Amino acid sequence: MKNVKVLRALESGPKTIDEISEETGVPNMEVRRYLLRFAEQGKVESYQKEGKLFWKIREEDETEKEFRYV
User: What are the 10-residue block averages of pLDDT along the chain, 70 residues in total?
Assistant: First the structure.
C-alpha cells in the first residue's frame, strides 16, 4: 500500500517529493502520481517556498464541512 505510505509521510508536516520518496522508499515518479491523485480528491495541496514545491495534508475548513452534503 504505497499510497498509504505517502499519506502517512505527510502526517508529520509538509515535505517535497524527494523527501517523501526518501522516507517511504517509493520512487519519485510514483510519489508524484499519488500526490496528484490525492490533490484531485482534495486530500492534499501543494505550495511553493524558497523555489521548492512542498506538499501537505489539506485542512478542511468549517464552511466546506457545512456545505458538503448540500
Answer: 94 96 97 97 95 93 65
